[in-house]
Amino acid sequence: MSYETIIVETRGKVGLITLNRPKALNALNAQVLADILVAAKGFDTDPGIGAMVITGSEKAFAAGADIKEMQTIAYADAYVQDLFVGWEEFTRTRKPMIAAVAGYALGGGCELAMMCDFIIAADTAKFGQPEITLGVIPGMGGSQRLTRFVGKSKAMDMCLTGRMMDAAEAERSGLASRVVPAGELVDEALKAAARIAEFSLPSVMMAKEAVNRAYETTLAEGLRFERRLFHSLFALDDQKEGMAAFAEKRKPNFTNR
Ligand code: CO8
């Protein structure tokens, strides 16, 4: 499979997607969406892959939706085509997806990072929702996901002033799970993904599903959902293996069954 706008590699059990439109600071156009969806779906259905990483360049994770592609779109077309709805498919990826962010993650770039399961930021990362400076607002979840990540006050600040948040502030406010030196970003993200990929895939996928449910439901419903998933894990060989390995003081040999 050849891609126009991304580089796709596997590192052991980890799928790595690197945005590759350097001249446009990895701005997200229709081709980037098409390429990312094919790559992510391919990894999601590949039994040899346990987790994924998506990253950009040193200068930019992604500087937003492609402004030049967007600027002439008519309202009727935006509405009828449900502009950007395709990105929802990316969020249906079932295996863990880590965003490894260096440099600019602006607008759609910040939104793409937030669509991933967690964000590891380089100390050079800059997050922002600058759409207001273009006469629009976030269009792919920024006003909703950023608010859930960092709370109303900071989300309002970001969406209304269009200011950027540096890596330290992003970690402090819960947007990034950790900050690492820029030169170690991809290795650190790959290491985290490789660790996840060593665990039992069904339990990893259920953990992701359970945490995501916290965003969509009440606490009582979420707790019931978690408990049912937890119970169902006792039907797996991997639960028996994981607990036997602990008792026998050895490494578990998970079979994803
Ligand atoms: N779209 C298209 N081209 C871009 C974009 C973009 N978002 N960002 C940068 N580029 C291009 C520039 O036009 C320039 O191209 P050229 O050399 O042909 O002029 C090249 O990338 C390099 O950029 P700069 O020369 O501007 O580089 P600087 O280092 O001077 O500045 C910045 C870097 C600060 C990141 C600056 O490029 C910038 O402000 N970019 C725009 C950021 C922005 O406003 N992003 C929000 C876009 S709107 C949006 O994302 C709506 C979200 C809706 C949902 C999206 C779903 C994915």
UniProtKB/TrEMBL annotation:
InterPro entries: ClpP/crotonase-like_dom_sf (IPR029045), Enoyl-CoA_hyd/isom_CS (IPR018376), Enoyl-CoA_hydra/iso (IPR001753), Enoyl-CoA_hydra_C (IPR014748). Keywords: Lyase. Its EC number is 4.2.1.17. It is an enzyme of class 4 (lyase). One of its GO terms (molecular function) is enoyl-CoA hydratase activity. CDD domains: crotonase-like. Belongs to the enoyl-CoA hydratase/isomerase family. NCBIfam families: PRK05862.1 (NF004517). This is Enoyl-CoA hydratase. It comes from Mesorhizobium caraganae.
